[in-house]
Fold this sequence. Notes:
It contains eleven helices and two strands; from the N terminus they run ααααββααααααα. It is mostly helical. The protein folds into two domains: 80 residues, Arc Repressor Mutant, subunit A (Orthogonal Bundle), CATH 1.10.10.10; 153 residues, Up-down Bundle (Four Helix Bundle (Hemerythrin (Met), subunit A)).
Amino acid sequence: MPQSIRSTTAARAAVFAPLAGGGRAELVAQRLTDAIELGLLAHGERLPSETEMARQFGVATVTTREALETLRDKGLVETRRGRDGGSFVVSKDSRAASVDRRVKALSRVELRDMGVYYTAIAAMAAELAADRATVDDIEHLTASIGAVDVTDEASTRRGEGNFRLEVAALSQSARLVREELRLQAEFAPLLWLCLREPAYRESSRASHLAVVGAIESMDGQAARRITCEHIADAIEWLLEAKVALEGKGWP
Length: 251
């Protein structure tokens, strides 16, 4: 497994993993934008230097410089000069209304298909993790779950994304990690709308602990089944939310 994927915090490592599609500045900018939108890079967080980021992504320094310029134009990054300077993340405000409009615009078939595709990736990662995780990996996953504040929606959303990426990393497949990150950027704001409700935040933690238990027992089928059930519940909630939004009659 590449060291860039199998690190202390796999979710963050996945953000800065080498690019598979070449060294274009747009790809670097998109990877960082996705990570900021998902909360994997927090507001105020200092990014690696242009040189270090270029090394991690496997691109030229001028490429990361252009990517950071794009993020500054979007208002997602600000650069400060001086000894304590650097490039820092600037998170945007919540886009709840925009997400609700996306849900209403998508058909039930599209939402279910989204769930099917995401389930295929997440479930396979969980199954492989059960065969390949170490004792240290199990301890790290358990600690990550415990660090999530389920009384806070934003914390639970970050925890959901981090957990899925950590499990993907334990599959020891760099491609699965990259696909998980891409799908999170595309689907997660919709898929995990259920985390608006406290009961679902508690349910999310319980599901994560159950998956860790299955991984620890080296029971890949159980890890797959629990993952499938968790995502299926989120999709059913999403479909009910769509019906409710359509009933409100706003555009």
